[in-house]
Amino acid sequence: MLTTTDGVQLNDHCGHVPQLATGRFSYAIAIPARNEQATIVACLDACWQSMQRVEAVGKIVLVVNNTTDNTQALAAAWASQTTCPLEMINITVATHFSQAGFIRRMAMQWAALSVVPDGVLLCTDADSRPDIDWVSANLAQIAAGYDLVCGDILLDQSHPQYEQICAIHRKNTLEGQYRQTCLELIHQLDPDPDNTWPHHNQVSGASLAIRRLVHDVVGGVPAVPLSEDRALAQRVALHDYRICYCGQAKVVTSCRMDGRAEGGMAQALRIRAGSGDFLIDEALEPAHLVLLRAGARASARRMWQQGQSCHDLYAFLNIESSRYDALDNIRQFGMLWQQLEQHAHCLRRERVLYSQLPVQLQRVKAMLMQVGELDMA
Fold first, then answer.
1. How many CA atoms does the CB half-sphere of 356 hold within 13 Å?
2. What does the DSSP assignment read for 195-236?
3. Residue ranges in 239-332 assigned as alpha helix (H)
4. From-to residues of CATH 3.90.550.10 in the chain
5. DSSP letter (8 states) at residue 28
6. What are phi and psi of 182, to 5 degrees?
7. CA atoms within 13 A on the CB side of 283
8. C-alpha angle 67/229/283, rounded to 5°?
9. Which CATH superfamily hosts domain 8-273?
10. Which DSSP state fits 135?
11. How many whole angstroms separate alpha carbon 113 and alpha carbon 107?
């Protein structure tokens, strides 16, 4: 059911195309929008073009929130000129709820209300343009047995700030190198059974697709201030559902540095454009933790799959013996790994400063070389 709170005021709720009132759709595209008059029509156009490439019947659910520009009027005018099923909800959200995670959660919940139980929920952003084959690529992966599909995000080369963004990435090239080298080491130690390497490894709200039943089981999109997309993927993994990094599900997104979410990607880019030191992506850890986490996860996965005792691993991770029985009774690997990370102090997350990357990168490269030599032996 749709979560409602005293912090949400419904201003307007309207539908375009008659079947919206009674239709049960195979899929729905949820789009949160806040002051997006410059991009909303292009976004809707791209979604509709992609929708027309599949036989399944879908709809768009546009949630306009805390908006002071003409986003809603432009979307309504666009809908009146097409046959696209568009449901539009205009809300005002109290400041303490006005966060990316909360709004995307509401948009996905609203979309779920008119999707059949075995249907699919997709989402993108109002400043993004899905590829012509975006819907078909997502639905194909769901049909192939995946539960969450993470699309590939490309920067809009026509955006006025594109060259500026590219310059920022060139200036901070070590972060990208470190990310790729860490991912390669992780793949060597603990291969992802559902995704062959290399893959884009992106989890972004600009391109996600999830089974409606899975969305409901995991509790929907977490209502967190930032990185709600990654938090959703973590929930999905926790239940051992299958995640696909799909290179065919492409979305072009804006390069703006004045994003709507405080602490989001736009702010991260502004920090990287400056001259001071900064903490790199929170998903990236020091080299020793990359090695330890991937190795421990691989060992836990192997023992769990083979039905072996994990007590030696618990002891290696210095987990209190009083927790062994509870850990042994966990029936899902995702849940087991979450508990191991929670109770093993040696696996506590650590952040990395950009100034530390030269040393950390050399360490990861050395580890990768050693792993490669062991494989050859």
1. 14
2. SPSS------TTSEEEEHHHHHHTTSS---SS-HHHHHHHHH
3. 265-273, 287-305, 311-316, 324-328
4. 8-273
5. E
6. -65, -45
7. 15
8. 125
9. Spore Coat Polysaccharide Biosynthesis Protein SpsA; Chain A (3.90.550.10)
10. H
11. 10
Tens digits of per-residue pLDDT, 192-243?
Answer: 999 999 999 999 999 999 999 999 999 999 999 889 999 999 999 999 999 9
Quote the CA–CA distance of 368 and 89 in Å, as a whole number: 50
Closest CA to 60 of 101, 100, 22, 32: 32
| pTM listed for this prediction | 0.93
Residues in the chain: 377
What is the residue whose two structure tokens read 């190198």?
177
- Yes or no: say if 303 and 340 are a contact pair by the CB < 8 Å rule: no
And the tokens for 347?
Answer: 């696996």
Q: What would the pLDDT profile of 178-200 be if each residue is shown by its tens digit?
A: 999 999 999 999 999 999 999 99
Element housing 232 (H / E):
helix 228-238
- The one-digit pLDDT tens for each residue of the chain (377 residues) are 344 556 788 888 887 765 665 568 999 999 999 999 999 999 999 999 999 999 999 999 999 999 999 999 999 999 999 999 999 999 998 877 767 889 999 999 999 999 999 999 999 999 999 999 999 999 999 999 999 999 999 999 988 888 988 888 888 899 999 999 999 999 999 999 999 999 999 999 999 999 999 999 999 999 998 899 999 999 999 999 999 999 999 999 988 767 655 556 777 778 888 889 999 999 999 999 999 999 999 999 999 999 999 999 999 999 999 999 999 999 999 999 999 999 999 999 999 999 999 999 999 999 999 987 766 45
Measured between alpha carbons, how far is residue 63 from residues 10, 15, 295 in Å?
A: 11, 12, 43
- Taking the CA of residue 113 as centre, how many other CA atoms within 13 Å lie in the half-sphere pointing to its CB? 15
Dihedral angle sign, alpha carbons of residues 366, 372, 374, 377: negative
- CA nearest to 72, candidates 106, 37, 111: 37
Q: Which helix or strand (DSSP H or E) is residue 58 part of?
A: strand 58-65
